[in-house]
Amino acid sequence: xxxxxxxxxxxxxxxxxxxxxxxxxxxxxxxxxxxxxxxxxxxxxxxxxxxxxxxxxxxxxxxxxxxxxxxxxxxxxxxxxxxxxxxxxxxxxxxxxxxxxxxxxxxxxxxxxxxxxxxxxxxxxxxxxxxxxxxxxxxxxxxxxxxxxxxxxxxxxxxxxxxxxxx
Length: 167
Description:
Arc Repressor Mutant, subunit A; two-stranded antiparallel ribbon; two-stranded antiparallel sheet; 4 strands; 53% helix; rod-shaped; disordered N terminus
């Protein structure tokens, strides 16, 4: 029997069904283990697991899954995206690992948020936006205008071989 990762959930559930049937017909845990070993061979559950599930089914448990704890399976929420964005904007030199540690989040989740949501990438030790926002374009325009207004200072600078002299 060849069991792949994709089939493991249904395979595991079928083993649980076999254990439950054995409990209902009155077989002991040892008899159930022997039957599972014959049916599944090397893929059968370990002895301790069979005995544990046998006990659970004997106490009235059903095959369906236990209810989950209610925690989300992913940390990728709007609130976490906002937290990552605020931290990246406060210090663009932070790497994904440092951000993940500071926010107590999974590194891969932080990487996905930075890349897909914030559309940023790492360039020479800084997180850089792929496309400039309107605010960033306005700031650059303002800075460039200021430099052009102060360009008359450049008329007084004489450049030479690695030496700067002011008139």
